[in-house]
Specification:
Chain lengths: 226, 155
């Protein structure tokens, strides 16, 4: 029994060592030949198609939560501005100090942050934006204003929610959640699954084109939404 | 971590270069993979924004075909320059300061290449205005350190 246990322990140690060595490289650094045999290529297409379906499903979840959270943020902001008329007007502010409206605004900001991060976390947008910042740093012709434009509007500055104003217009952008929701449903509910099915059917070219188009539309939709 | 080493780390994280041969520009970003289409979009976005920056300069009045030509120039030069930058940043035999100096040299060389192409696209008067602005921007770039925080970051 003891030798068996030792062998099992040695096997585990070997597997752990192999895993640790593998972890030094990135998970997706899988070396695949650029020109595989037809059967391998077909198998890869099926694999990538199935994985693509899953990816679209998860991206849709993330984006839908983002749209929901942005809508919740706007509702909270509306409540904050409404309550602010009562607890933060020139007379009442000396008594109530706008405690309720300010806290509602903070909640609105938190929902906004969650929604913005969620939207950006879908469809690879966050890493694109992060990379854009690093690359823009190396462009002498771009000003701060240009870098900000490249970074996009999300998330809004906290002052859009808690700054001194009766009506915090920037925090609403009422069409954003609707546009984002529609874009997620079309891109992840229709286009990307269709691309995955095309890939499974070994139609790589059309699948790639449709996949790229879907993601590009989603990116543009975020721009339209703001 | 200093600003300089952070900036170099950022660039290094971007810098796994083409992952599958020279043709595909696929970058690994700090554990996140940028597919070729994303890299292409990134280059296009930056080139487009650079044209916006140029168009803001008074006295240039770019024609539509000039704007398109500039965008193509910026896009191509940026991708090539960035590939070179990546190779430098990944070198183990250089200290951070040396890497930063080399990265700046490469960026400025890329700027000169793009400027030469831009000169072919713009009229003489336009180019004089462009060149004056470009030199001011380049001088500011020389003065600031990479990751110096002189550029506003949203987060």
């Amino acid at each position: 029994m003891r030798p068996l246990r030792r062998i099992a322990a040695a096997l585990c140690a070997a597997l752990l060592a192999a895993g640790a060595a593998g972890a030094e490289r990135l998970d997706w650094e899988v070396a695949e030949s650029a020109e595989p045999a037809p059967a391998v290529r077909a198998a890869r297409n099926v694999r990538d198609g199935v994985l693509g379906l899953g990816d679209a499903f998860f991206d849709a979840n993330t984006a839908l939560f983002g749209a929901f959270a942005l809508a919740a943020s706007q509702l909270c902001m509306a409540a904050s501005d409404g309550v602010g008329l009562v607890d933060d007007n020139p007379l009442s502010e000396h008594v109530t100090k706008g405690v309720v409206s300010k806290n509602l605004a903070k909640v609105a900001w938190l929902w906004h942050l969650a929604g913005a991060e969620s939207l950006l976390g879908s469809h690879g947008l966050e890493q694109e934006r992060w990379a854009t910042g690093a690359v823009a740093e190396l462009n002498p012709l771009l000003s701060d204003e240009d870098v900000a434009a490249l970074a996009g509007p999300l998330p809004l500055d906290p002052l859009a929610f808690v700054g001194e104003a009766t009506f915090h217009a920037e925090a609403y952008r009422p069409h954003a959640p609707v546009v984002d929701l529609g874009a997620a449903l079309v891109a992840d509910g229709v286009l990307r699954p269709a691309a995955s099915l095309l890939r499974i059917a070994q139609l790589e070219g059309p699948a790639d084109a449709l996949d790229e188009r879907a993601t590009d539309w989603f990116r543009r939709a975020l721009g339209w939404g703001w | 971590m200093t600003g300089r080493s952070l900036a170099l780390a950022l660039v290094a994280a971007l810098g796994h270069g083409p992952a599958h041969g020279e043709e595909a520009r696929v970058w690994e970003v700090n554990g996140i993979r940028l597919e070729e289409a994303q890299v292409e979009r990134l280059a296009s976005d930056i080139a487009r924004q650079t044209v916006v920056a140029v168009e803001r300069q008074g006295g240039l009045a770019l024609r539509a075909e000039q704007s398109e030509a500039l965008e193509a120039i910026y896009r191509a030069v940026a991708l090539d320059t960035y590939d070179e930058v990546v190779r430098v940043v990944r070198r183990d035999d250089l200290a951070d300061a040396a890497k930063e100096a080399e990265v700046k040299r490469l960026v400025l060389a890329g700027q000169e290449r793009s400027s030469a192409h831009v000169a072919e696209v713009l009229d003489a008067a336009q180019y004089a205005t462009y060149r004056a602005w470009e030199e001011r921007q380049v001088e500011a770039f020389r003065q600031r350190g990479l990751g110096s925080g002189q550029r506003r970051r949203r987060r």
